Amino acid sequence: MNERVLVLDFGGQYKELIARAVRGLSVYSEIRAGDIGVDEIRRLAPIGVILTGGPNSVYLPDSPKCDPALFSLGIPILGICYGMQMMCHMLGGEVAPGEAGEYGRVMVTPVVKGEPSALFCIGRRGDPCGQSPAGGEPFDALMSHRDAVTRLPKGFTVTATSPLCIAACEDADRKLYGVQFHPETAHTEGGREIMQRFIYDVCGASGDYKLDDYIESQISQIRQQAGDRKILLALSGGVDSSVCASLLSKAVPDRLTCIFVDHGFMRLNEGDEIERVFSKRRLRFVRINAQKRFLARLKGVADPELKRKLIGEEFIRVFEDEATKLGDIPLLAQGTIYPDIVESGGVHGATIKSHHNVGGLPESLAFDEVIEPLSGLFKDEVRILGKKLGLPASLVNRQPFPGPGLAIRIMGDVTEAKLEVLRAADAIFREELAGTRPRPDQYFAVLTDTRSVGVKGDDRTYDPVIALRAVTTDDFMTCEYTPLPHKTLSRISSRITSEIPSVSRIVYDITSKPPATVEWE
Description:
The protein is of the alpha/beta class and 521 residues long.
């Protein structure tokens, strides 16, 4: 049994980033609903509890709350954003709407009165105040709130401030800590050190969790869930489904069939490349060419959410048809990862976009169960897992490609003519960036539904605008746009407009996430 930190979810979009940050410190983390009872918490025996952010106001009667007895268990607790506000509110403090919110990077200044805070000064390596970004000196932190703590509960002290609020507080005697900002994100300077100090200095962790443990535990869970039943894996050829295939083949090597459905929305020559790679591997590989079937299903459909749901449903129907042909295969496996679940609504969160393999699944399935062994991992963890499982670098390091493919990179309805244009533009963009160092983590072209006047060969044109998108990210929950050199962008624009007759204008997307998402739809 590993040491465990519980992450109690109150609807925060960054809940899995918190869990990932804890696991990155070699401590096992587990996400549970925010209203979990104290009896269950005692049974799980965590060394610490972290309360996530969330979109609600704690002073409203229907806002989510934790079990009040949680604060009397003697377990170290860290409240983040809404979690800090909820803790202060439930323990007798006051939370109120602020005159103005704080969003984005905000300067936070530690307050030292008497003994320094365990979170901001003396760390596990004994570093003195001021020796790290999260030490005694001011640092930038990611804020996303309007409500603020205006009066602390009895026993609490202020340990950091921002221009508009109490940025951190604590009752060290009861091991209760709160931060209004988000140390789990890369946008907070020294955030990892703050998390480390809570986990090691306050909770007393020894760091006994490694990703190898995840492989062994998942193999055991897959075998337990599958029993002697066969499994059909929806294989896209991307990083997630490839790692999923490798993990499943270790668990049930003789009962796994991998089906690759070519829905017609793949990038240039991609279907053939996937078949070349996986038909040579030691697994049962089946390719289904269903291009006409999917294109007919999306005819006239412009709404992105409906596209995703229709594609998700059609995927399932194809898998059901093939499972029937192949015999009794009662289990469906998918390479779903946690960002898919978060953006599709998760447990408490708002739906950002329905991923075809989560929010796009139909209510009725012909399969008995769905197996998703990667659903608790981020993309970077999946890549690490792939390397540990012995997958080639060409697969492990492949940039993400959404399940619905180019269908959600075409604004408006999807046609074969539009797909041909986008495939060509996307291929040029990817070819030009193939040798770029450092290379963006994801980059692609989008066929917008905006038309623009142009001139080619002295003739007037009026064609769709192509948008280019390239981002840099560690977790795909947040990202920054990649500032590609103007010379590179100019060359790409020249090639696309010269080689594709129906394109005469290129734009480059310089929006980060948030407020945008990585994909356009």
